[in-house]
Amino acid sequence: MLSKAPGRLEKFDRSLVRAVSRLPGGSHDEFFRQLSAAANNGKLWLGIAGIVAIFPGKFRRAALHGVIAQAVASGVTNLGFKRLLPRARPLPEHLPAFRFVDPQPTSSSMPSGHSASAVAFALGAGLVRPALGAALAPVAAGVAYSRVHTGAHWPSDVLFGSAIGAGAALVTRKWWPVRPPFPETSRTAVKTSTLTEGQGLSIAVNTLGGSYAAETADALQKVFPKAHIKEIGQDEDVAAEIAAVATRPGTAALGVWGGDGTVGTAAGAAVEHSLPLLVLPGGTLNHFARDAGTPTLAAAVDAASRGEAARADIGHVTVERGLPGSPETLELSMLNTASIGLYPNLVRRRELLQPALGKPLAGVVAMFRTFAAGTPTTLIVDGVRHKLWILYIGRGHYYPRDHAPLVRPVLDDGVFDLRMITADESFARLRLLWSVLTGTVATSRITHLTEASRIRVEPGDTTMVVAVDGEVMPGVRAVEFSVKPGALTYYSPLPER
What is the CATH number of the domain that holds 422? Predict the structure, then answer.
């Protein structure tokens, strides 16, 4: 039976080629010739991917998955099967001269690389965005058929190549998995001081904040005409000035305008003096303002005027610095995140690339650039020694559960979100880059996701650099994190009922 298979395959191929050769000539011949040439070296699919990637969301993920599937299919076809299955291509006498491709490819005819790439890209993109896959299917089919129409391949080459392409798309389906939906936002609502026209509100404005401008104070005074506003200058101590604002006579609520570090300092002062905190969107990214439901000034004004608020946990951070003979201890409040290792560099690169590439692709590119040249750090986490690329600590669960956390739906869950990307395993850098390429960081063996209410970190050798809410501290000998449950009251618009 096996000896008859090649004969049957040859008869099948020749009968289909004869049917194609009997088709009348026309403009379609030039169309298929041009379509086939456009797909050389995957140029057609890379061009389509570039256009699709302009659109946000699943379109970009679809384009990326299509390109990855195409790359896998092309590699398997050209580096594997073409070498294992040498086969002569159709001869000029098999097709009309005006239709026959010239010059003909010199590699093995079996299987068709054009067909493999076409099906891999169209199906790969379609698995993420079905409507896009449906639109690409006729183009992929046209490319596959063009290889027979122009005499570049036998029909069985095209079928085999198409099967390889489909397999590549399905195999890579688990790479860059579709993220599960984030949990719904949940807040523990409380009533607090009603700040009509800003009555009783004292606002600390850090003039070094990300979005500060000369008219910032005037804009705030316009929406809060009865509020006290203190602008903190470049040479002033931010923590001391915020404490002075919080203890000003008649202050019923503390407002803050500034970046994450400034907001964290204000949160500590608000907790210490039992004041509700009004977070105004004055930083570059406004992480806590976004999570608190006040990403705009209008939302903050609305919550303050109604006295609507919620409870949040706050992180307490004890930092040990200084020389062994002269230790220094700092006590800090933490609202958002802390990190050790390469994470700050990753975030900075991602934020620079995000406007042009979007969040998912910017995260991939930033991850590659950061870890291709970076080196791991040895740390002792809760008594266990690790070699780490990243130690990330979020105050509360962040989503998605990978290297690029973005959203925190609950602010009073009582835990730290601890993420370690380790370099303890063999081929650690290759494992890391592969997990980034395939979007499987969250499920990789190098990623460890846990939660805790208390964490202690020490350097493995001398000192370490720690970033807390964006504020970088070098020369740290130990750092301990603990949670103060429900300690902070913050203004937040309650959902409409």
Answer: 2.60.200.40
Tell me whether strands 464-468 and 337-341 are parallel, antiparallel or unpaired.
Answer: antiparallel
C-alpha–C-alpha distance, residues 471 and 490, integer Å: 22
CATH number of the domain residue 290 falls in: 3.40.50.10330
pLDDT along the chain (497 residues), means of 10: 59 84 83 91 92 84 88 90 87 66 79 94 92 95 92 91 92 70 87 93 88 86 95 92 96 92 92 96 79 91 94 96 82 92 74 72 76 83 91 92 80 95 82 73 83 94 86 90 96 78
Sequence letter at residue 283:
G
In a domain, 496, yes or no: no
Query: Comparing C-alpha atoms, which of 87, 70, 104, 76 is closest to residue 157?
Result: 87
Q: At what angle do helices 58-76 and 359-373 cross, to 10 degrees?
A: 50
CA 22 to chain centre: 53
**What are the tokens at 279?**
């977070």
Q: Strand, helix or coil at 496?
A: coil
Measured between its terminal Cα atoms, the distance across the chain in Å is: 74
Torsions phi, psi of 421, nearest 5? -105, 110
Give the predicted TM-score (pTM) of the model: 0.66
Rounded Cα gap, residues 279 and 412, in angstroms = 17
Same domain membership, residue 123 and residue 16? yes
Residue 212 structural domain: 195-306
Burial of 290 (0-12, 13-18, 19+ CB in 10 A): middle
Same domain, 235 and 348: no
- Read off the tokens for 388: 């780490």
Helix (H, G, I), strand (E, B) or coil at 381: strand
* Residues 353 and 463 placed together within one structural domain of the fold: yes
Q: Which two tokens stand for residue 447?
A: 């990623």
